[in-house]
TrEMBL record:
<keyword id="KW-0458">Lysosome</keyword>
<dbReference type="GO" id="GO:0009505">
    <property type="term" value="C:plant-type cell wall"/>
</dbReference>
<dbReference type="InterPro" id="IPR005199">
    <property type="entry name" value="Glyco_hydro_79"/>
</dbReference>
<dbReference type="GO" id="GO:0005765">
    <property type="term" value="C:lysosomal membrane"/>
</dbReference>
<dbReference type="InterPro" id="IPR017853">
    <property type="entry name" value="GH"/>
</dbReference>
<dbReference type="GO" id="GO:0004566">
    <property type="term" value="F:beta-glucuronidase activity"/>
</dbReference>
<keyword id="KW-0325">Glycoprotein</keyword>
<keyword id="KW-0732">Signal</keyword>
<keyword id="KW-0378">Hydrolase</keyword>
<keyword id="KW-0472">Membrane</keyword>
<protein>
    <recommendedName>
        <fullName>Heparanase-like protein 3</fullName>
    </recommendedName>
</protein>
<feature type="signal peptide">
    <location>
        <begin position="1"/>
        <end position="27"/>
    </location>
</feature>
<keyword id="KW-0964">Secreted</keyword>
<comment type="function">
    <text>Endoglycosidase which is a cell surface and extracellular matrix-degrading enzyme. Cleaves heparan sulfate proteoglycans (HSPGs) into heparan sulfate side chains and core proteoglycans.</text>
</comment>
<dbReference type="Pfam" id="PF03662">
    <property type="entry name" value="Glyco_hydro_79n"/>
</dbReference>
<comment type="similarity">
    <text>Belongs to the glycosyl hydrolase 79 family.</text>
</comment>
<dbReference type="GO" id="GO:0005576">
    <property type="term" value="C:extracellular region"/>
</dbReference>
């Protein structure tokens, strides 16, 4: 009888310890749960058939919108247009320079209404004028060559790689069915390209059109006609850049993914297209009151993988050698939403998008915008970095190009991504906690990485430490790892102030971007991911075959 009672008490104790270790209340706060989790990293195979990004994966956009571009009664663009942006602003210069290089895509809705000043065309070079009766709500605008000169000089000094979006609707007529008919008139674009080459300006890529694929935005161009136009653009690039060792990329269509349209387009441009670009605004309009709910919903975030997987499948099954880019992504269209798409909470969506896009072999991801609207990486008026700027910069500095297959067990509220490290021979893990009431203690397991099987890294290091105590000749490597914990000021996810390891990130009086310094943590300890926080973890001691 005594033995039975003892056994019962023993198993009750084991059960209580299991529950306590996996779900307990923090004694200091009284309302924060602590749960255990494991991130599994496949060390022998990269994600999604050897997924790999460009080294300069991070990209941002600059748009054409004038100050009187307004949405839902709010005019959020200020002087952030390509035509009026203050190129003498020190913060702007330093923000770009910090990436060295930062890809910048110049384009947007009004690019298909822009003409380029030319000595062969004597019509006045006038700015955009708001006119609700006009297509897209504005008159035709013009890029003066003096401004084009200023932009190129600035971008060269700042270390930007420029992708320019060309007007694809020049001379086209929009029919009663909403489609734009006829072939692309390339005369004005060709004039700009020749001027650019003659001035010695370097352009990373020329992109044709903005959001004209599929059903289009405002109007559309059929896939077969678009393919014909791209073939023409490739011929122009080959001709103008004759003798150049490196020629600019040709990109298109810069629109929303439509499987049938993209399939036809890619099949008909097998040798004339280097980049297939598409746009992401999967959160809906900026006026939506449920943006936060969507951002914090892991199932909704996961559903955002459809354009990435669909385009990857088309490219894999085509004869084209083109790669996939996200050419513009602001999350919420019509300029975003103040204190959401320019606040801390948006880093959950943005970094998850970067991680997901990488898994599906996306080479570059362009954020709408660098500055302008309510979704800029920089504040439209002050140029001071918003939280997403620092998220982007940390990604750029820490996440290498090789993408590792990653999964997470323990809670659905953690989003996890892993790349080979850019800073070391190890790995960098990104952990995003969508739960505002739970701290997660995370172990890292490099399953299939070595003979350790699914032992966590922390367990492996403990074994090494025990062995080291028995052998004076054995040295334990990788005693520490570097962690970057991102949180919102005062825990307010609507805040536009981000903290790194508890310290506010802000530019100094000279407009310099602050250093992004990690904390060193024992590699044997679990990674602590606080409520509503983001953690980059660089683990140099983990050498995986996929990162060799």
């Amino acid at each position: 009888m005594g033995s039975s009672v003892f056994n019962l008490l023993f198993w009750c104790l084991i059960f209580w310890l299991f529950c306590y270790s996996n779900h307990k209340v923090d004694s200091q706060t009284g309302n924060v749960d602590v749960v255990q989790g494991t991130v599994f990293v496949n060390g022998t195979a990269a994600a999604s058939s050897s997924a790999k990004t460009d080294d300069d994966f991070i990209c941002a956009t600059l748009d054409w919108w004038p100050p009187d571009k307004c949405d839902y009664g709010t005019c959020s663009w200020g002087s952030a247009s390509l035509l009026n942006l203050d190129l003498n602003n020190t913060i702007l210069f330093n923000a770009i320079k910090a990436f060295s290089p930062l890809k910048i895509r110049l384009g947007g809705t009004l690019q298909d209404k822009v003409i380029y000043e030319s000595k062969y065309d004597h019509q006045p070079c006038s700015p955009f004028v708001k006119n609700p009766s006009e297509f897209l709500g504005f008159s035709q605008g013009c890029l003066p060559m003096s401004r084009w000169d200023e932009l190129n000089v600035f971008f060269k000094k700042a270390g930007a790689a420029v992708v320019f979006g060309l007007n694809a609707l020049n001379s086209r007529k929009i029919g009663s069915d909403g489609s734009a008919g006829g072939a692309w008139n390339s005369t004005n674009a060709e004039s700009l390209m020749r001027y650019t080459v003659n001035k010695g300006y370097t352009i990373h890529g020329w992109e044709l059109g903005n959001e004209l694929s599929g059903g289009g935005v405002g109007t559309r161009v059929a896939a077969d006609q678009y393919a014909s136009d791209i073939i023409s653009l490739q011929h122009i690039v080959d001709n103008i850049y004759t003798g150049f060792k490196v020629k600019p990329l040709v990109l298109a269509p810069g629109g929303f993914f439509d499987e049938n349209w993209f399939s036809e387009f890619i099949d008909k441009t097998p040798a004339s297209l280097q980049v297939v670009s598409h746009h992401i605004y999967n959160l809906g309009p900026g006026v939506d009151d449920h943006l936060i709910d969507k951002i914090l919903n892991p199932s909704y975030l996961t559903s955002g993988s459809q354009p990435f997987s669909g385009l990857q499948r088309i490219l894999q099954n085509s004869a084209s050698s083109a790669v996939s880019w996200v050419g513009e992504a602001g999350g919420a269209y019509n300029s975003g939403r103040n204190l959401v798409t320019n606040a801390f909470v948006f880093s959950f969506w943005y970094l998850d998008q970067l991680g997901m896009a990488s898994v599906y072999n996306t080479k570059t991801y362009c954020r709408q915008t660098l500055i302008g609207g309510n979704y800029g990486l920089l504040n439209t008026n002050t140029y001071v970095p918003n939280p997403d700027y620092y998220s982007a910069l940390l990604w750029h500095r820490l996440m290498g190009s090789n993408v590792l297959s990653t999964s997470f067990s323990g809670t659905t509220k953690i989003r996890a991504y892993t790349h080979c490290s850019k800073r070391s021979q190890g790995i960098t893990v990104l952990l995003i906690n969508l739960d505002g009431n739970t701290t997660v203690k995370v172990q890292v397991s490099t399953e299939n990485a070595a003979s350790h099987g699914a032992l966590t890294i922390q367990q492996q290091l403990i074994q090494k430490t025990k062995f080291a105590r028995m052998s004076r000749d054995y040295k334990v490597d990788g005693k520490t790892r570097e962690e970057y914990h991102l949180t919102a000021k005062d825990g307010d996810i609507h805040s536009q102030t981000m903290l790194l390891n508890g310290k506010i990130l802000t530019v100094n009086s000279s407009g310099e971007i602050p250093p992004l310094e990690p904390i060193n943590v024992s590699a044997q300890d679990p990674i602590t991911v606080g409520p509503f926080s983001i953690v980059f973890v660089d683990i140099p001691s983990v050498g995986l075959p996929a990162c060799a």
